[in-house]
Amino acid sequence: MKTSIRSIPQLYRNAMRWTEIASVLSKYGLANWMDRFNIDFISERLKTADGEKLKTLTHPCRVRLALTELGSSFIKFGQLLGTRPDLIGTEMADELSKLQSQAPADDFESVRAIIEAEQGKTIEQLFHSFDPEPFASASIGQVHRATINAKDYPAFESLARSGSKLIEVVVKVRHEGIDRVLEADLDILSGVAQLAERLDDFKNYQPASVVRDLSQTMRRELDFEREHRNLLQFRDLLQSDPRVKIPQPISPLCSSKMLTMERINGRPLKEFGRDATMGGRCDLVAQQGANLYLKMIFTHGFFHADPHPGNILIMEDDTIGLLDFGMVGRVSEHLRESIESMLVAIVNRDVTLLTSLVKRVGSCPKDLNESAMSNDLADFVGQYSSQAMGDFDMSGALNDFVDIVQRYGISLPSEASLLIKVLVTLEGTGRILNPNFSLMEIMKPFHRMMLMKRLSPMRQMRKMQRFYIGLEQLADVLPQRLTTILEQIQTGHFDVNIEHRRLGPSVNRLVMGMITSALFLGSALMLSFKVPPVLFPNDGWVGIQDLSLLGLLGIAVSMMMGCRLVWAIRKSGNLDQVD
């Protein structure tokens, strides 16, 4: 592949970034490295920005600090990786969930340039007022308060407060040049993942595939049009639910680099807390919020995937306002059926069914120890199936289940991992309002609803319809395919292509062994028949006579080749070791 001159600056920037990444990773991995040599006077001097000694921090904590120091792209990657506890474990996922996407804000002139380039008008023409100071700045963009004239946007006049001609809005603007920074960092992450593919410790986790999926999610978050569509879809799905408030996007002021929506006034859940002045409001809000999320997940199959306290507002009438729809999740019918079957298996203590469902849903390694996993699942079922519904620890059960999956190298689908993470976060958020909050208790009616839906005639009819469509497609193509195969056999053009994997080294050793043995046998025959030229034609040393020179050289070469072959086999594994 030819490298153009235009790509050299990009290669240089990536090389500089590689150096920076290596430096930061070395810094945060140095404490453990020094511990092995007991060089305390150096490891004691390594500290965080807050003055805390790195030596005293856990490995997940050092990973979080390193990602924070590497900047916004790696912070966002860490946040997304935190939604995959099946790959990194619950301890690491919990630590990465603490990552905060705080980033320096762009100056107002950069924000002005982006908005005016996207809309083709000046800020003064678009907005009645626009606060030049952002009230929040994250890894992808920053958010400003503004107002618009209701008469300029008649379709949104209902959003204006009574007696006011102005609509309060918030404007989310993408950081200038963030796309270039993100692409450079994603290229580096892709390179790291390809290197990790070669290591046996990481191979089962398919790092290249994981980075590819998470990179696609990060690129999607760059496009604010996608968040605009998510807002419209959620408003359509939940328009009849008075318990929730979804911001109304101002569509004429939305594009791929900016998003304008109505401003929702309320208290963030993290500030709401549980105090004596709230009375029973906290319990009510916790129950309403949980019902809302379970409805999104199990009824609509489309849910807000970031229910941490900062993204949930409590309004004066206890209506729940949801913010930040950049990350959403979907539950396919197949996944929903698998979840239902798992719940039934746990309730019935059917470990065999639960094991088969885990294998069907996840991607299992070739060397999966199924009997050991079944024993662990049996302990899991025994521990949680006996708990009362009101006392059931949902987050504990999900975390223990993920630990089992991660222990045996099983990779869950990204939507399943995201759903588990959302349910764990949801129960934790509910307990901020009510320490006795039980998500499993609220799930009871949804569990009954899932079972009834599963047995409903309409669902069975849809399954039969899909089966009939598949059978009809097979009936259409099968005769033609069989005819083609028979014609190829008749004309002698039928080929069978066999793809072998990891057979190259074995075949090479086999061929090497055959050549070595053939050379040894041939050289032994040359020695036996005294093929000239010969050494010691007369009486030689210790009775040796008429020794074939070619046979002797052949024996020597075959012995060297044999030693080389034995060394290669020992390097790759013992002869009795199964690959």
What would you note in describing this structure?
The chain is an alpha+beta fold and 579 residues long. It has four domains: 1-101 and 181-220, no CATH class; 104-137 and 141-174 and 223-263; 268-455, no CATH class; 504-572. Helix content is 58%, strand content 8%. The strands form four sheets. Strands 1, 2, 3, 4 and 6 form a five-stranded antiparallel sheet that branches. Strands 5-10-9-7 form a four-stranded mixed sheet. Strands 8-11 form a two-stranded antiparallel ribbon. It is elongated and about 125 Å long. The two termini are 35 Å apart. It has helices at residues 8-35, 40-43, 59-70, 72-81, 85-88, 90-96, 108-119, 123-126, 178-196, 200-203, 207-222, 224-237, 269-272, 281-300, 333-347, 351-361, 370-384, 394-407, 414-433, 439-455, 457-491, 504-528, 549-572; strands at 129-130, 136-137, 141-149, 166-174, 244-245, 258-262, 267-268, 302-304, 312-314, 320-322, 328-330, 534-535, 547-548. Strand 2 (136-137) and strand 3 (141-149) form a beta hairpin.
Topology:
Layout: H1 8-35, H2 40-43, H3 59-70, H4 72-81, H5 85-88, H6 90-96, H7 108-119, H8 123-126, E1 129-130, E2 136-137, E3 141-149, E4 166-174, H9 178-196, H10 200-203, H11 207-222, H12 224-237, E5 244-245, E6 258-262, E7 267-268, H13 269-272, H14 281-300, E8 302-304, E9 312-314, E10 320-322, E11 328-330, H15 333-347, H16 351-361, H17 370-384, H18 394-407, H19 414-433, H20 439-455, H21 457-491, H22 504-528, E12 534-535, E13 547-548, H23 549-572
Parallel strand pairs: 5-10
Antiparallel strand pairs: 1-3, 2-3, 3-4, 4-6, 7-9, 8-11, 9-10, 12-13
Helix pairs in contact: 1-3, 1-9, 3-4, 3-6, 4-11, 9-11, 14-19, 14-20, 15-16, 16-17, 17-18, 18-19, 22-23
